[in-house]
Amino acid sequence: MFLNKPVEQSSSLVEQASQSAEQAIKSTRQVANEALESLAVAMQDLRHQATPVVEHAAEGVSAFAHRGVDSVRETSHQLRVKAEHASESTVNYIRHEPVKSVLIAAATGAALMALISLVSHSRHHS
After folding, report:
1. Cut 0.70: pTM above it
2. Rounded Cα distance, 114 and 121, in Å
3. Using one digit for the tens of pLDDT, what is the confidence trace for 14-53?
4. Three-state secondary structure call for residue 3
């Protein structure tokens, strides 16, 4: 009978240890599942919070790009108007002062030829 009692006690201890281990595993699973669920909720909240920020940033970039395109268009238009005005002014000057215009053109041509000659002459000596 004395032998039966220690075997029964060991068996009981093993059973208790087994139940404790199972309970620990169940508790760990429950804690892990709750943590994963909490993480999933946090990620979903973060995504919901980030979406408007990203959309707002995209709208800002789009608006900036449109302003840039509009600015380039406006600048191009202003340059075209100024070039037309300069062309008209030049034609009017030539009409009213043809001799001066020819003399200015000749002087400009001579100055350009002298400059080109000077630059090409300095390249040959270098």
Report:
1. no
2. 10
3. 788 888 888 988 888 898 888 889 988 988 888 888 888 8
4. coil
